[in-house]
Amino acid sequence: MLVNVELVAQRAGVSVSTVSRALRSVPGVSATTRKRVQDAAHELGYSASPAASRLATGKTMTVGIVVPVLAKWFFGKVIGEATQTLRQAGFDVLLYELATAEQRQRFFGTVHLHGRTDGVIIMALQPSREELESLASQGQGVALLGAESPGIGSVNVDNVGAGRAAVRHLLNLGHQRVAFIGIRDEEGSNLGGVPPLQRLMGYREALGGAGLAGPAVLEELDENSVAGGAAAMSRLLVAEHAPTAAFVASDEMAFGVLKVLRQAGMDVPRDFSVLGFDNHELCDVVGLTTMDHAVAEQGRDVAGILLDALAGSGPRTLSRAARLVVRESTAPPRALREVPAAPDSPNSAGHSGNL
């Protein structure tokens, strides 16, 4: 006897679509029903084929992940975690890189996803109302990371608070001329969009709260890369009143900052303090103080939000706080460390130690 999905559904007393969802561990099936379907399939010797399951449910069991650029540690980390979560739920993943305005217009301006995916995760790109309407017309569930839109589930970081905390750490060490090295917006992307601008807002708020509103000359923007960080730091070094510390909007840029300082013969942190953002895996290697915003968890969170949307749940919005991770790249400025001891101090030069 040929065993098919209809026989399993009949044995378990459920619909064909429920059999498909239960056997592929798709959310929305109760544990009791899933067990009954699995028992029926085992008794009949039935093994679900992905193609048959997709035909039965009318779903592709595939999710699209959209990013502005693939060749970045942050996106690689988030994509890896999101993909693992989605595959555990029975979904395949398609990656889309929208590095230019033309690629973005082509992606959202055509019926690109209909019949290919059931939903899409959009990372570090703020979709317009028209772009979201295009996805909705194609029957796509949507989840956002690093962006927000009414009625859409999303994962974000308190970047303003993170920027304030980063700069306050440097201020508390005694630095008064603190620079900001940020991410310049690239064509078609949101890499220099809302999150980096929020970090700049936090930087300005921290300085303003300390009565040290910094001049614009201490704010430098460049591409989000080692080379971009190096170029920005090179410009700061020749400023009329050079800073003694810098808050850098990404660890990748901070690595470039460290490179330039080393080439200039400056010691970190004796001559200059550097604080990054991301908690990149190499931060431990180079001793970089940074802001950790739980990159891996963001990937799992946004995948879970999309799975909820595909199962018919309402949109969820999560906001994560970043935490300061102190390593060897930050210390008090040299001027504070080298203040001579007071004449009446027991440790002052020339003191005989006799009373």
What is the rounded Rg?
27 Å
The percentage helix is 40-55%
Distance between the first and last residues' Cα: 106 Å
Q: What sort of overall outline do the alpha carbons produce when their principal axes are compared?
A: elongated
- Tell me the structural class: alpha/beta
Lateral strand order in the biggest sheet: 2-1-3-4-5-11
Low-confidence stretches: 345-355
Q: What's the order of the H and E elements?
A: HHHHEHEHEHEEHEHEHEHEHEHEEH
Query: What is the percentage of strand-forming residues?
Result: 15-25%
Mean pLDDT: 87
Q: How many helical stretches?
A: 14
**Main sheet summary:** 6 strands, parallel
Q: Give the total of beta strands.
A: 12
Which properties best describe this structure?
alpha/beta; disordered C terminus; 355 residues; 16% strand; elongated; six-stranded parallel beta sheet; 14 helices; six-stranded mixed beta sheet
Give an account of the 3D structure:
This protein is of the alpha/beta class. Helices cover 43% and strands 16% of the residues. It is built from 14 helices and 12 strands. The protein has helices at 5-12, 16-23, 31-44, 50-57, 73-88, 101-109, 129-137, 159-172, 194-209, 226-237, 251-263, 283-286, 295-310, 334-337, and strands spanning 62-67, 92-97, 119-123, 141-145, 153-157, 178-183, 219-222, 245-248, 273-277, 289-292, 317-320, 323-325. It has a 6-stranded parallel sheet with strand order 2-1-3-4-5-11, with helices on both faces. Strand 8, helix 11 (251-263) and strand 9 form a beta-alpha-beta unit. The longest helix has 16 residues, at 73-88. The chain is elongated and about 80 Å long. 41% of the residues are buried.
